[in-house]
Amino acid sequence: MMLLETKKLSNIYDNNRGLQEASFSLRAGRILALVGGNGAGKSTLIRLLTGQEKQKSGEIIWHKPQAIRYMPDDVDFPSMLTATEILQLLASLKQIGKSEQEDVLRRVALWDVRKQRVKQFSKGMRQRLNLAQSLLGDGSLLILDEPTNGLDPFWIAELKKMMLEEKARGCTVIFSTHLLAFAEEVADDVLVLHEGEILISGDLKEILLQENSTSLENLWLKKLNL
Ligand SMILES: Nc1ncnc2c1ncn2[C@@H]1O[C@H](COP(=O)(O)OP(=O)(O)OP(=O)(O)O)[C@@H](O)[C@H]1O
């Protein structure tokens, strides 16, 4: 079943950069990786999908209304609050009870430090708290902007497990990353962006086969003539 389609979706900023006429579709229950270099347009696309920005032209067609859970890139939590307080605040907006808050804190192994102020957290711990808040609730679309940022190899592997668990529950996952090998391990579909335009989109395995590429990295380098 189709989840969403975009048609010539564009958001060009004053500096002439952003996202240009992006058209793609995504089926429900799939994991989609957004890949591309710095400034390719990944976060711009995510901001349009999450409704944080409105497109200048083109459209997003949602085939059914979606409750979205979202993990932003580079979140700035109030550093004087504890992990518990931050989750309480965010959970109250979604009307989510205490036991679920406790559950997500345990899932990201921040239970033992839940009463510490976030300013004492390492980057990876803050990123795990960011992940925890995105797991709250039962929105059937999970959007993760650079979720591996700051995570060590153990937590990257845990993140992968969590994403696959979400998929197994019937959730659709969209995530951006610079880690092409990670994208290849987790994703069903891929959208390769370059300077605001879609270079490649579709089923990852089919594309690698069609393009006679051994890996996503190999394909990416080939398409950019690197
Ligand atoms: N608010 C803004 N105002 C002006 N230009 C912007 C704005 N947001 C993004 N851009 C420009 O749009 C382009 C795409 O940026 P975007 O953040 O979507 O890229 P990205 O693929 O997420 O990059 P990165 O991997 O570096 O996070 C960049 O050239 C960026 O400078």
UniProtKB/TrEMBL annotation:
Keywords: ATP-binding, Nucleotide-binding, Transport. It comes from the Bacteria. PANTHER family: ABC TRANSPORTER ATP-BINDING PROTEIN ALBC-RELATED. This is ABC transporter ATP-binding protein. InterPro entries: AAA+_ATPase, ABC_transporter-like_ATP-bd, ABC_transporter-like_CS, ABC_Transporter_VariousFunc, P-loop_NTPase. CDD domains: ABC_DR_subfamily_A (cd03230). Residues 4-220 form the ABC transporter domain. The lineage of its organism: Bacteria, Bacillati, Bacillota, Bacilli, Bacillales. GO terms for molecular function: ATP binding.
